[in-house]
Write a structure and sequence with these properties.
Elements lengths: L2 E6 L5 H13 L4 E5 L6 H10 L5 E9 L4 H6 L6 E6 L7 H8 L8 E2 L5 H12 L4 H25 L4
Parallel strand pairs: 1-2, 1-3, 3-4, 4-5
Bound molecules: 5-O-phosphono-beta-D-ribofuranose.
5-O-phosphono-beta-D-ribofuranose binds next to strand 3.
């Protein structure tokens, strides 16, 4: 199975990124995690992206806050799908990171999830890998059914709570 690469701009992003690693673990998807910054370690971030396909990765998740150029910088150096997680914090509480991540120029796409949306980033990565992996696709279907069952259980009890 292809690996998921997870890059975070700082180890201060780790509490957010952990939701992605937890999700990937629950689906038995192999992943590798690094702290590389578009600004503080641009060479390492670039090298990771340039070599990612040859190193067995199928998709890359990049998490960063504030002037969040990491996902875009990674995407500039690979044609693997890149998923950006804008992280909350800083003067604008994440709006700056959201816009920095989502506003990519035509030609260099980044699939941007919600602020701190690490679980969905992992699920989207899983869905990309599941395109040609029936066993993983079945796992994702089973998860959808289990998640729906939880909601329907809440539906049963909602009237009594009013
Ligand atoms: C970004 O700046 C990082 O991704 C992090 O979200 C934010 C703050 O980084 P630290 O100053 O905590 O290292 O590059």
């Amino acid at each position: 199975m292809k690996k998921v690469g997870i890059i975070m701009g700082s180890d201060s992003d780790l509490p957010i990124v952990k939701k992605a690693t937890d999700m990937l673990k629950s689906l038995d998807i192999p992943f590798e995690v690094h702290v590389y910054s578009a600004h503080r370690t641009p060479v390492e971030a670039r090298d990771f992206a340039l070599n990612a396909r040859d190193n067995g990765f199928g998709v890359i998740i990049a998490a960063a806050g504030m002037a969040a150029h990491l996902a875009g910088a990674i995407a500039a150096n690979t044609t693997l799908p890149v998923i950006g997680i804008p992280c909350k914090g800083g003067m604008m509480d994440g709006l700056d990171a959201l816009l920095s991540t989502v506003q990519m120029p035509t030609g260099i796409p980044v699939a941007t999830v919600a602020l701190n949306g690490a679980a969905n980033a992992a699920l989207l990565a899983a869905q990309i890998i599941a395109v040609d992996d029936k066993e993983l696709a079945d796992k994702l279907d089973a998860k959808r059914r289990a998640d729906a069952a939880v909601v329907l259980e809440k539906d049963k009890g909602i009237s009594e709570r009013l």
